[in-house]
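Reference record
================
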Amino acid sequence: MQKKTSLQVATEPGGSWVQTERAAHERWAKLAIAHPRASALLHVLLARMGRHNALVVSQKVLAKMADCNPRTVQRSLEILSRNNWIEVRQIGDSGTVNAYVVNARVAWSGKRDGIRYALFEAAVLVSDADQPDRDDIGMLPPLETIPALYPGEVQMPTGPGLPPPSEPPLPGFEPDLPARTLEDTELS
């Protein structure tokens, strides 16, 4: 019996909802009749897109998620793109890893005010099977962490501070500007 892998995307608190426009929802029903695999793939994309309507993922992983072959995914993506359900932004040379941006007039997650920035932020879905170091993933050392401030702590230095110190010039590098002495000013 073959083990099915489940690929999950961590969602933000309150980020489990995807909303659709009523008219788009009705067009989606027609898409499901005319192109059932494309409609199913759109569900996969929407279920995993970030709060700015985009998902970066390989076609190979999409094929696993939609339980179909990669050529079916390619045809479905072409249908979705041609009919303005999604926009595809290629990442890399091969064209098999892309950012898929869901048309914000169709569906969105989170607040509606962030949709105009959909091309600039995405959830990234990566399968461990596609990683060259997949056998070592569990044994990799932890990443360095950025120190965090805990309640009651303050970042150092803090406060108004002191003016920068005034340093005397290095020997031999004194400014060579004309100077007036007190005697010169009294004669003028």
About this structure: The CA atoms of residues 104 and 116 lie 8 Å apart. The chain is about 30% helix and 10% strand. Strands lie at 19-20, 54-58, 86-90, 97-102, 107-108, 123-125. The helical segments are 22-34, 36-48, 59-66, 70-82, 182-187.
